[in-house]
Amino acid sequence: MLAPDALIRPWRTATLVASLVAAVELVLLAGAGVLLLAKPLSHAMQHHAEAAAAAPAAKRIAAAAAATTKVVLPRLTRDETKVFVLNGNGRSGAAAAESSKLQTLGYRVPATGNAKRTDYATTVVMYKAGFRGDALRLARDMKIKVVGPLDGLKPAALKGGQLAVLLGAR
Questions:
Q1: In sequence order, which residues have a C-beta less than 8 Å from that of residue 112 and are 6 or more positions away?
Q2: Among 102, 106, 70, 68, residue whose Cα is nearest residue 86
Q3: CA dist., res. 18 & res. 150, Å (int)
Q4: How does pLDDT run along the chain (170 residues), one tens digit per residue?
Q5: How far apart are CA 117 and CA 55, in angstroms?
Q6: Quick one: fold of 78-167?
Q7: CA 109 and chain centroid, separation
Q8: How many angstroms separate the Cα of 33 from the Cα of each of 45, 89, 113?
């Protein structure tokens, strides 16, 4: 009669050999997959990178073309324009200080307040529908680079104003 170990050893050896063969096959299949997919994937990544690099230039050209073809004029004078100032940078008194600057420039400030968040990175001028020209003039006066329509604010929240300045860290 055979010893119990003699029956187990051939199966253990066969299992280890089969596992080793399967591991080698897996490595070879993975290598073949990389070789087959590498070239199309690298071309796709290169095309995406070129498109992303060219996009800012295309946007600047389109914006410059749009700015030169369509001039938007302010509807109101500075003393008729009401600006609601929101502090979105978390610095105490920032809205009041900006309000004073705006009043010095001739704008009316019906109210100031705090934004829902205090971590805005950039100062933004926002405008109600029809007041884009007034917002562009205010942004130019305040040297603010970002101008857009009301985002997250309802027109009624402007306390009777046409524009809002959301103060960010810059």
A1: 84, 85, 86, 87, 95, 96, 98, 99
A2: 102
A3: 67
A4: 556 666 566 677 788 889 999 999 999 999 988 888 888 888 888 877 777 766 665 566 666 666 555 778 999 999 999 999 999 999 999 999 999 999 999 999 999 999 999 999 999 999 999 999 999 999 999 999 999 999 888 888 888 999 999 999 88
A5: 31
A6: Alpha-Beta Plaits (3.30.70)
A7: 29
A8: 17, 50, 59
CA geometry: angle 164, 85, 148, nearest 5 deg: 25
The whole model's pTM is what? Answer: 0.59
Q: Which amino acid is at 8?
A: I
Those residues with Cβ within 8 angstroms of residue 95's Cβ, 6 or more apart along the chain or in another chain: 85, 86, 87, 112, 113, 114, 167
DSSP-assigned letter for residue 55: H
Give the distance, in angstroms, between the CA of residue 79 and the centroid of all CA atoms in the same chain: 34
